[in-house]
Amino acid sequence: MHKILVIDDDPDMITVIKLTLKKNGYEVASAAYEAQAYEQVNAFKPDLILLDVLLSGSDGRNICKFLKSRDVSKHIPVIVFSGHPSAQKNIRDYGADDFLAKPFQESDLLGKVKNYLPV
């Protein structure tokens, strides 16, 4: 079973994403802030990370850049998501593998995930 880490500070968004992914056969963990995200990457060892750009007190792009600079996590695909369309412009500069605009449909989320975690 593929493991996905969702990093977002919106509990409702985490709940919706977790339910969607779990019902489609993925194991899911979540983190709401930067330090917790790093802890979960080390403990949970995800196969994919879904990362919101705007977190309370942190910029998801910088979290992505840090994760992509570490040997233990640089191989993990990171899909960044945001409600701000301009956030997509420079995500590759931070090492993100893909972008998902909020709000998104369940099929859009699953399509992105399946690009990186084929069944």
From TrEMBL:
Entry-linked InterPro entries: Bact_response_regulator (IPR050595), CheY-like_superfamily (IPR011006), Sig_transdc_resp-reg_receiver (IPR001789)
Q: Example GO biological process term? A: phosphorelay signal transduction system
4-aspartylphosphate, modified sites: D52
Q: Identify the keywords attached in UniProt to this record, alphabetized.
A: Phosphoprotein
Q: Which residues form the Response regulatory domain?
A: 3-117
**Matches recorded under SMART domains:** REC
Q: Which domain of life is it from?
A: Bacteria
Q: What is the protein's given name?
A: Response regulator
